[in-house]
Amino acid sequence: NAGVTQTPKFQVLKTGQSMTLQCAQDMNHEYMSWYRQDPGMGLRLIHYSVGAGITDQGEVPNGYNVSRSTTEDFPLRLLSAAPSQTSVYFCASSVNRGPGELFFGEGSRLTVL
Amino acid sequence: GDSVTQMEGPVTLSEEAFLTINCTYTATGYPSLFWYVQYPGEGLQLLLKATKADDKGSNKGFEATYRKETTSFHLEKGSVQVSDSAVYFCALSDKGAQKLVFGQGTRLTINP
Hints:
The complex is a heterodimer. Chain A is mainly beta. Chain A has strands at about 5, 10-15, 20-25, 30-35, 45-50, 55, 65, 75-80, 85-95, 105, 110. Helix content of chain A is about 0%, strand content about 50%.
């Protein structure tokens, strides 16, 4: 049982480049979300989705886009990377249409030079 | 808005010591409360939860009681092991909200 799968695990970008972090879950969860983890700041919500075709902004959405065309996939797009986006990114899903108990991926460490 | 405050880390203990990690919260409604644990190189995983006042969540020897009067959800374990070394996050989810609000995390190291 794969759970929540994130790719890539590590990525280095130059300022201004764009990229997509992939997230897939095989648990048929309706709720999916993206968090970023920074030292001393816990996890902060970037975007979330309560079902296919529905997305909304979280606490720190600027510089990121998401889409939810299927139940399984929830990619996070960085449009023009900035050093402030250097972080560890976690995708998480939940069976209900609310966060409840979240199941996390293993994380994607992004460095923007 | 909603917020969670955890005790500052890092916390270092010897094996078999008693553990307490403090967590207090601010919420407008009646939230559900969670403790998540993050082992090195891994994502977070749910450790325990409580959904209403006076509920006690427990798992793997860890316990936490939802105290509405003190707005607290402190994590405790009677005898820690080296394998408990990890980062622990307290979190809340207010009813109707679409997100979990996390504390800053507390790094715990257990020495043999």
